[in-house]
Amino acid sequence: MRIVLVGPPGAGKGTQAAFLAKNLSIPHISTGDLFRANISQGTELGKQAKAYMDAGNLVPDEVTIGMAKDRMAKPDAENGFLLDGFPRNVSQAEALDVALKADDVKLDAVLDLEVPEDEVVKRIAGRRICRKDSSHVFHVTYSRPKRDGVCDVCGGELYQREDDSEDTVRKRLEVYHTQTEPIIDYYRTQGLVVTISALGKVDEVTERAMEALKGDK
After folding, report:
1. pLDDT score of 139
2. Could you say which of 71, 122, 127, 128 is catalytic?
3. SS3 at position 213
């Protein structure tokens, strides 16, 4: 299957993408991984992206699209892929359609993870990260440490990242509504959108997504 995964920040896209890709035996292609791989390998597209990023500018769509096209052409993506974080806007979605059409393939589904805005804010703003080891993550509601402000694993101080503040989360949601959400309507006109609730336990959401995708095949 060839799938695009969409949803607001805090919807659990990265987590679900990893599980779905494994269950469907297709590669998980995320924008972050594309950038890191191209920059670390010193590809021409990676050099271009780094130059924009070092200058504090947004990477142009054509560079991101070029990276995605190169990755989708790899042998492991021959029978499908799951795109996470791309396309990010309608112009990228249109460019993706053109690229796929040139290879005589098409998307099978656009999986829309639906989460109420208040829940998104609660999920992200409640995160607390360990200063000693950022892989130690807690939550004021869902995964409380035994002692407030102290990491259960190493005793490090727990803090809220600036990106996780409520004001920042709401700004990120505004960007999502303005730039990314329109692609759902774009794909809906093609009959590709499958919307599921991303509330509940991780495995419950994965099962819900798998059932929805089976029904869409």
Report:
1. 95
2. 127
3. helix
- Residue 21 in this model has a pLDDT that exceeds 70: yes
The model's pLDDT over 120-139, given as tens digits with 9 standing for 90+, comes to 999 999 999 999 999 999 99
Question: Phi, psi (5° rounding) for residue 128?
Answer: -130, 130
Average pLDDT over residues 9-19: 92
Looking up tokens 């042998």 gives 75
Token digits for 58? 């947004």
Has 172 been annotated as catalytic?
yes
Enumerate residues 6+ apart whose C-beta is below 8 A from 203.
19
Question: Known catalytic residue: 13?
Answer: yes
Would you list the DSSP string of 81-134?
EEEES---SHHHHHHHHHHHHHTT----EEEEEE--HHHHHHHHHTEEEESS-T
DSSP states along 29-66: EEHHHHHHHHHHHT-HHHHHHHHHHHTT-PPPHHHHHH
71-90 CB burial, b ≥16 within 10 A, e <16: bbeeeeeeebbbbbbbbbbe
pTM higher than 0.85: yes
From edge to edge, which strands make up the β-sheet containing 2-6? Answer: 28-30, 81-84, 2-6, 109-114, 193-197
Catalytic annotation, pick one of 13, 71, 122, 128: 13
User: Catalytic residue at 69?
Assistant: no
Active site residue 123: no
